[in-house]
Amino acid sequence: MSVSQGARVRRGYVDTALGQTHYREAGSGEPIVLFHRTPSSSACFSRVLPLLGQRFWAIAPDNPGFGMSDPLTGPPGPTMEPYVAAAVDFLDAKGIERATLVGHSTGSAIVTHLAASHPDRVERLVIAGYTGCATDQEVDELFAVLKTGMSPTWGQPVTLDGTGAFLDEYPLTPLRNVIGRFDDPDHFVMEMISHLQGLPNYEWPFQAVLAFPGPVAVYPDIKCPVLFINAQSGMGYTFGKRAHERFPGSHYTEIEGTSEYPMQNPSAFADVITRFVDTDAA
Fold first, then answer.
1. Distance between CA atoms of residues 139 and 44, nearest Å
2. DSSP string across the chain
3. pLDDT tens digits for the chain (282 residues)?
4. For residues 69, 72, 77 and 81, what is the CA-based torsion angle, rounded to 10 degrees?
5. I need a surface site. Which of 56, 104, 118, 219 has the fewest CB within 10 A?
6. Which residue segments constitute the domains of the chain, with CATH numbers given?
7. pTM (2 d.p.)
8. What is Dmax (Cα atoms) for the chain?
9. Torsion of CA 264, 265, 267, 268, to 10 degrees
């Protein structure tokens, strides 16, 4: 199934407690809401939305401070609650009472906490590219992987200036995650723009995702069907597998590619979600 065969993607804004939230959407009907990783934007689902939009109302907001959405009013500290509250505000603004939620990496932490604290809003939960940790040792392990695969200063703030001199330092932080990583020029440009848009406070979500009690701690509070999607290759494989094993009764599948599979392999990503919805609805 090619993207050209899919539903047309629309863009828009809604007003929320933080200001304006930008989103992309396609299709109509049963809602599936997708939350992106850090430091990307809803653009990372731009090839998935047309495919899901053939069957569903697929909608992806820019998380606060990323893409074209207004930021949080300050650092979130050791809690996901500001991001969860923003996600609930977005659902309210779009008139979505209950939906299947899909989270990619940071987005997975958002939807996991949302499903635990607002079970009436979540029909099903899809956790993709998960980075949640259960112990301090696992946090250290995760950062060791990030620093080896990306940058020794990953997750550290960048000091901006008015001349662009900070760009000499920037390749040592999130931009290191983009340069030389993609063979697909469209994907490269999209991620380059998204990383630049999220640069001012790109480290904030990491403070929340890696805080304790983390997403793993709220698993017992989640009552809806859960699917874990994991890439067959890439540095996040172990974390995705471990997360599923910690959630009794959850479903699990692997997709060919790295953690960039929403763009690398959108048909498989959309098909897995569609099968999960259809199986649960049967």
1. 25
2. --GGGSPPEEEEEEEETTEEEEEEEE--SSEEEEE--TT--GGGGTTTHHHHTTTSEEEEEPPTTSTTSPPPSS---S-SHHHHHHHHHHHHHTT-SSEEEEEETHHHHHHHHHHHH-GGGEEEEEEES----SSHHHHHHHHHHHHHHT-TTTTS-----SSSGGGGTGGGTGGGGTTTT-S-HHHHHHHHHHHHHTGGGTTHHHHHHTSSS-GGGGGGG--S-EEEEEESSSTTHHHHHHHHHTSTT-EEEEESSSTTHHHHSHHHHHHHHHHHHHHHH-
3. 344 468 999 999 999 999 999 999 999 999 999 999 988 999 999 999 999 999 999 999 999 999 999 999 999 988 899 999 999 999 999 999 999 999 998 999 999 999 999 999 999 999 998 767 777 777 777 666 665 555 555 667 778 888 877 777 655 556 666 776 778 899 999 998 998 899 888 889 887 887 766 788 899 999 999 999 998 876 677 778 888 888 999 999 999 888 888 999 999 999 999 999 999 876
4. -80
5. 118
6. 3-139+209-281 (3.40.50.1820)
7. 0.92
8. 58
9. -160
Kindly state the tokens that stand for 199: 């640069």
